[in-house]
Specification:
129 residues; mainly alpha; 0% strand; elongated
């Protein structure tokens, strides 16, 4: 098994968990959904890495997981960015702070998912001919 892919999933899971805790620290209870999603998906990334290490699942599972995370967190980042633009147009200052934190942290998770997907694909083992 390629240990680079396992380490990549460990790093991706750690980034997700850390971003969830940072969001909860700065936004408080308003960030419960982001905290739950990032901790849950971070734990799933660690579990996938462990299952790949003991050869229970294929390496394509990690690639598919990175793809799903990039799509899911990218959609949430775009939704929060559009909400932030709406808040700024209507001059509602009270909620702009939390939405801007969400946009930054979700974009970090999304970019790390996309980067891990690219590196994961490069590290996939090809069949011997």
């Amino acid at each position: 098994m390629n240990t680079k892919n396992e380490r990549l999933l460990h790093v991706l899971g750690s980034i997700m968990i850390i971003c969830g805790f940072i969001a909860y620290y700065y936004a408080g209870s308003k960030a419960n959904q982001l905290l739950i999603a990032s901790i849950g998906l971070g734990a799933i990334a660690w579990i996938i890495a462990y299952l790949q290490k003991i050869d229970k699942i294929t390496t394509w599972t990690g690639f598919a997981f990175s793809l799903i995370c990039s799509v899911a967190f990218g959609q949430r980042c775009l939704a929060n960015l559009m909400a932030l633009i709406g808040i700024m147009q209507n001059r509602l200052i009270s909620n702009a702070y939390h939405k801007s934190i969400y946009v930054v942290l979700l974009s970090i998770i999304c970019v790390s998912s996309i980067c891990s997907m690219i590196v994961y694909y490069v590290n996939l083992e090809e069949a011997k001919k």
